[in-house]
Amino acid sequence: MQATDLDLLTDAARLAGKVATSFVGKGTRKWDKPDGAGPVTEADLAVNTALENALRSARPDYGWLSEETEDTPERLRRETIFIIDPIDGTRSFVDGSRTWAHSIAIAHQGQITAAAVFLPMRDKLYSAALGRGAFHNGERITASEAADLNVADILATKPVMNADHWPGGLPSFTRAHRPSLAYRLGLVAEARFDGMLTFRPSWEWDIAAGALIVTEAGGICTDKTGAPLRFNNEQPRLNGVIATGPRLHEHVLGALAPAPPAAS
Predict the structure, then answer these.
(1) Burial of 130 (0-12, 13-18, 19+ CB in 10 A)
(2) How far apart are the first and last CA of the chain?
(3) SS3 state at 32
(4) Secondary structure of residue 87 in the 3-state scheme
(5) Alpha carbon distance 8, 32 (integer Å)
(6) pLDDT in tens, 118-159
(7) With contact defined as beta carbons under 8 Å apart, do 41 and 23 qualify?
(8) Which residues does 1 contact at the CB level (< 8 Å), separation at least 6?
(9) Bridging pattern class, strands 63-66 and 111-119
(10) Tell me: the pLDDT tens digits for 111-123?
(11) Rounded to whole angstroms, how far apart are CA atoms 246 and 254?
(12) Which are the contacts of 211, defined by CB distance < 8 A and separation ≥ 6?
């Protein structure tokens, strides 16, 4: 019997963890990608190879989009694709941190249908399938019910706090940070934080798995304008991300919107 897509992804996430942790503490070779695209290590490439071999042999009709594989237009002709970040948080991996993750998702006709985010150094596995809920290490999770942005706990980088983003005034939420975008989304899904914000263009492979995990936990995940996220785009980048529990999202959008003109 063929494994479900979610079973396939969770098994692949565990495989990725075994490959990546085999490099920990061994002085992994690293170098910088062209055009300031950040660092890559031999561990990233080894995980990418292991995942591609395992996933594409199991689903040969699925397309492939990965941070560590040269992109081609071929995936655009596929209804269903894998979207992979072999190691999300490579800088953290190099620095010896435990907050890097493997992010693995399947998109069908632009919508994420199965997802796994695994942090092997913390033994944290987030997973979700469309319409079946979200889970952390096998336990169902639910996003925060917080509604007041000014007292919320939000995962965001320092540029999010630029006053230019907040025409009505900078909210007084408590800001925290984690290097991996996929991990940030998992933390929102399990209500460890009330929301996650990034206003920079975001690669699909950083967001795809975590976005489904948030929404299946009852949260809302959109681009920075509130538009729904769609995946397997020709240019695989999203217009920022707002991920929150169900009650907070509208308040974030309201705080980001320009004030309406005063009545005459």
Answers:
(1) middle
(2) 69
(3) strand
(4) strand
(5) 31
(6) 999 999 999 999 999 999 999 999 999 999 999 999 999 999
(7) yes
(8) none
(9) unpaired
(10) 999 999 999 999 9
(11) 14
(12) 112, 115, 185, 221, 229, 241, 243
Q: Which residue type is seen at 68?
A: E
Judge contact between 116 and 125, C-beta under 8 A: yes
* Per-residue pLDDT tens digits for 61-103: 999 999 999 999 999 999 999 999 999 998 898 888 899 999 9
Q: 3-state class of 151 per DSSP?
A: helix
CA-based nearest residue to 256, from 238, 237, 242: 242
Residue type at 121 in one-letter notation:
M
The one-letter code for the residue type at 151 is V
Structural domains of the chain, with CATH: 5-140 (3.30.540.10), 149-256 (3.40.190.80)
Q: What whole-number distance in Å separates Cα of residue 126 and Cα of residue 115?
A: 8
- Which of 89, 99, 138, 91 lies closest to 122, judged by CA? 99
Give the type of residue at 99: T
